[in-house]
Write a structure and sequence with these properties.
CATH architecture of chain B: Orthogonal Bundle
CATH class of chain B: Mainly Alpha
Low-confidence stretches of chain A: none
Helix content of chain A: over 70%
Largest sheet of chain B: none
Number of helices of chain A: 11
Oligomer: heterodimer
Number of strands of chain A: 2
Number of strands of chain B: 0
Mean pLDDT of chain A: 84
CATH topology of chain B: ABC transporter involved in vitamin B12 uptake, BtuC
Shape of chain A: globular
Structural class of chain A: mainly alpha
Mean pLDDT of chain B: 82
Radius of gyration of chain B: 21 Å
Largest sheet of chain A: 2 strands, antiparallel
Order of helices and strands of chain A: HHHEHEHHHHHHH
Distance between the termini of chain A: 53 Å
Low-confidence stretches of chain B: 1-20, 359-367, 380-386
């Protein structure tokens, strides 16, 4: 039983990591009054960037390239929704479709028409000294790939930045009341560009994490809705880094449930478990919406 | 934010000029010209992409042309067959966007429709006689509407952003079909993950002998005309258009029940997408399996946007995108170029269009959503909405 619990926790953290990365980035984006509906595409771009260079540049190079791919994707979106002021939802959807198609095409061009699964170097799990020896939770929380520790560090840093710094205040002002921000001498567009790039880099990293720390290969459409789930996580986490991290854990736990049921030998169609995160997203959105207030200027143009 | 003038400097960009030309051209009725420009754009993008991917663009274009519009057989057996679900799902998106409802879930609604049509078609079999087919197609439409009801209800009751909920419903639909074709609906030998073949009585008759085109194409065209007429000339259509224009004004003017109108538009949108699925299984595949739709529901967004949310132009745009997809299949078959290239072309065309014409849904989506949220929260506090 402890074995099951430990592997459940381990799987929870592992599946929550890419979700948390994308959602933490999106938190800043939405706090700045934008919404990146193209998050799914950004994750795909990051995943593809990572897989292309992983064999040549190793794990650090893969993460760097994933982040850059995310930045490129964010740049395209920013051009449309900040500079041209196109509808963020239509633009984001188009960006997702572009990224899904383009990564699929490029992958087949680069690695053969059948899209063979290739193996790439993966980020090894690193055991932190002392804490990893804690019973049950120690192994799950502190024997993880580097990306997980990156998330651990990001949560307090982002909280501090958002609530305790001048720049964080400016960002929130842009999301809550752009007119007041302008009056205070802040350029909303500049703040939004920065937020979008930050979110893009994080979503790119999320894709890289998926490839390098989790799956170990690339598949067309491998993000499987994680971008949209991350957007739901941001709402569920009430647009705060700590809340978002907790919400990501919840989604990780639901995805990890299938391992538990498998090891307990329950006869339930496996498709039900695969569908669970999406069902949970619907439930979470219904529970959250209307009760908590999103940034007031969210999505306004 | 709003005070800032709307990107005046970008007027000089050549892309914007092209976009303006495109829009005015649609309006001026120069449909043939616009269609030719769009085909040329598609051809240009195909050449660029094939060239960039290291293939021979001439060979690619040749294959695409022969496989889509080059021969009578290609038009009747590939392009128009592919266009049928694209027109119907394109109409679904057109209606939803016109009403300010961001239904990105045509894919899931299509799968729900296909599932219901196959289930009813198999249940009816030969014993129900001619009733089987219309019943199967109709139940497909209803299943699509039911699949759309979940996000529609979530939106109305809780103000949930339907972009996300409809996408979630798409994934759930994929897994549901995956379960059904390995469980209750699997073929009797239990080897392949697909349903048994539909009996003759549940299949759409072919339209022309010697070609694969079926009566579903006519259904799609009739739907386009009906939707065009309804949006243009009926009270309900007027309500939908006003709602899409500005939900607050619509509500303030006390002319329109905003919640009811957008709910109905959402459901009808789901019905159209469900119809697309039902027609695809009764007219083309004759059975249910997981990869039934190569993303028709997503391509539908491009179809509707290029059709500038006009049902008649959406039908035409559906044919163009049908040609693109038929051409892409031919490129894969004859020139070994991955057919996923078509989705890149579609996405780039969408992005170009968005960039150059700043196509937006007539409503600011968020303002209608905020409205839904406010309504929901008022209801939550036991207050009658004004």
């Amino acid at each position: 039983m402890t074995d099951v619990a430990a592997s459940f926790l381990d799987a929870t953290i592992r599946t929550a990591t890419p979700l948390a990365l994308a959602a933490l980035g999106e938190t800043l984006v939405e706090r700045a009054g934008l919404i990146n509906i193209g998050l799914e595409g950004t994750i795909m771009a990051g995943a593809f960037g990572a897989v292309v260079v992983a064999s040549h540049l190793g794990v650090p190079g893969a993460f760097a390239t994933a982040a850059v791919a995310g930045l490129v994707s964010a740049f395209i979106l920013g051009l449309l929704i900040i500079t041209l002021r196109a509808d963020p939802i239509v633009a984001g959807t188009a960006l997702t479709l572009l990224a899904l198609g383009a990564t699929g095409l490029l992958y087949r061009v680069a690695f053969g028409t059948t899209g063979v699964a290739l193996t790439i170097p993966t980020a090894p799990a690193v055991a932190l000294p002392i804490v990893s020896a804690l019973p049950i939770i120690g192994h799950a929380l502190f024997v993880q790939p580097i990306t997980t520790y990156f998330v651990y560090a990001t949560i307090p840093a982002l909280s501090w930045w958002l609530w305790r710094t001048q720049a964080g205040l400016s960002l929130r002002a842009v999301g809550e009341n752009p007119a007041a921000a302008i009056a205070a001498g802040i350029s909303p567009a500049r703040v939004q560009w920065k937020a979008l790039f930050f979110g893009g880099a994080f979503a790119g990293l999320s894709g890289g994490c998926l490839v390098v720390s989790q799956v170990g290969t690339f598949a067309e459409g491998m993000s499987a809705g994680r971008g949209f789930i991350a957007i739901a996580i941001v709402a569920l986490g009430r647009w705060s880094p700590v809340g978002v991290a907790i919400a990501a854990l919840l989604f990780g736990a639901v995805s990890a449930l299938q391992f538990v049921f498998q090891s307990l030998g329950w006869k339930v169609p496996y498709q039900l478990f695969l569908a669970l995160p999406y069902l949970l997203t619907l439930a979470a959105l219904a529970g959250v919406a209307g009760r908590h207030t999103p940034p007031a200027a969210l999505g306004r143009r | 934010m709003r005070q800032r003038s709307r990107g005046v400097s970008s007027v000089s960009s050549p892309a914007l000029v092209i976009g303006t030309v495109l829009r005015s051209a649609w309006r001026a009725g120069g449909i043939l010209v616009v269609a030719l420009v769009l085909v040329a754009t598609m051809a240009g993008l195909i050449s660029l992409l094939t060239l960039a991917s290291g293939y021979d663009p001439i060979r690619a274009l040749e294959a695409a042309w022969t496989g889509s519009l080059g021969t009578r057989y290609a038009v009747l057996s590939a392009t128009l067959v592919r266009a049928t679900p694209l027109i119907l799902t394109g109409l679904a998106v057109t209606l939803a966007f016109t009403a300010g409802v961001m239904n990105i879930g045509a894919e899931g609604q299509l799968l729900a429709g296909a599932t219901a049509a196959v289930a009813v078609g198999l249940a009816g079999g030969q014993s129900w006689g001619w009733v089987t087919l219309p019943l199967a197609v109709l139940s497909g439409g209803i299943a699509g509407a039911l699949w759309a009801y979940v996000p529609a209800w979530l939106r109305r009751q809780f103000g949930v952003l339907e972009v996300i909920s409809t996408i979630m419903m798409n994934f759930i639909a994929v897994y549901l079909v995956g379960y059904l074709v390995r469980g209750p609906l699997q073929e009797p030998l239990r080897i392949y993950p697909q349903s048994p073949s539909l009996p003759e009585s549940a299949r759409l008759p072919l339209l022309i002998t010697g070609a694969r085109l079926h009566w579903g194409f006519v259904v799609a065209l009739v739907s386009a005309v009906l939707l065009w007429w309804a949006l243009r000339s009926t009270a309900a259509g007027f309500r939908v258009r006003v709602l899409g224009g500005n939900p607050h004004a619509a509500h303030a003017a006390a002319l329109i029940d905003v919640g009811k109108t957008s709910m109905r538009a959402f459901l009808l949108s789901g019905f159209l997408a469900g119809l697309a699925g039902a027609i695809e299984v009764t007219g083309v595949t004759y059975s249910l399996y997981e990869n039934l739709s190569p993303g028709y529901g997503y391509t539908a967004i491009a179809v509707a946007l290029v059709g500038s949310l006009n049902p008649l132009l959406t039908a035409l745009s559906g044919v163009l995108f049908g040609a693109l997809e038929a051409g892409a299949s031919a490129m894969q078959r004859d020139a070994g170029i991955p057919s996923v290239l078509a989705s890149v072309v579609e996405a780039v065309m969408m992005l170009l269009l968005i960039g150059v014409t700043r196509i937006r849904t007539p409503a600011s989506v968020f303002s209608s959503l905020r409205f839904a949220r406010r309504e929901a929260s008022l209801r939550g506090h036991g207050m009658e909405t004004p």
